[in-house]
Amino acid sequence: MPPVTETRKDLATRWAEAAQSGARAAGYCALEHHSGRASCTRTPGHDGPHRDYYNGRTSITDVPGTQWSE
User: What are the boundaries of the region Disordered (predicted)?
Assistant: First the structure.
């Protein structure tokens, strides 16, 4: 049997990758905000800034939530 050359990923990395994979499967861009507290919930390949419509709202009536550009 050939030697295993890849290293095991830690649990936090595996959780983050699984969350991003799930978000992409649900039809989201899923690019993570630099603070780590938001990820883009717009469709993949969208035009304009990234937005997380669920996190970062100060009140229930706020529409954009967290918005950022790369």
Answer: 36-70
